Write a sequence for this structure.
């Protein structure tokens, strides 16, 4: 897959924000044309004292949920980079990180001021239980 290396670099920041307790949410957006799949939203969940990621696939007429390990979620999300999504946005309490493809499919990863002041409540609960 042509975007595996650059998306892997981006996803390293996703995993770090989960480990550090700063992760708020992850969204894949900005589709190519009018597609049935509109967004993918990623949030942490707890299942039997393990942290997993819930992927919510938002279609025009329905929503489908999948549960994945943190590492397996990478492979699942990678399938949708450039087909149909041109951007992924990681929201953390320290920064927002945007993975973006332009019209020529050149990748840019841009860090911006954070949109969220609080991490995911599930993540906070999980990290507190580990202390």
């Amino acid at each position: 897959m042509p975007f595996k290396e650059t998306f892997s670099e981006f996803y390293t920041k996703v995993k770090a924000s989960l480990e550090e307790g700063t992760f708020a949410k992850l969204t894949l957006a900005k589709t190519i044309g009018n597609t049935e799949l509109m967004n993918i939203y990623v949030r942490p969940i707890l299942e039997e004292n393990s942290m997993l990621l819930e992927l919510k696939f938002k279609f025009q007429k329905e929503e489908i949920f999948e549960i994945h390990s943190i590492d397996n979620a990478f492979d699942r999300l990678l399938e949708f980079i450039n087909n149909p999504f041109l951007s992924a946005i990681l929201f953390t309490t320290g920064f927002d990180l945007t993975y973006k493809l332009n019209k020529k499919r050149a990748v840019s990863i841009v860090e911006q001021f954070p949109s969220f002041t609080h991490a995911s409540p599930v993540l906070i609960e999980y990290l507190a239980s580990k202390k």
In short: The helical segments are 4-20, 70-78, 121-129. The two ends are 39 Å apart (CA to CA). The longest strand covers residues 37-47.
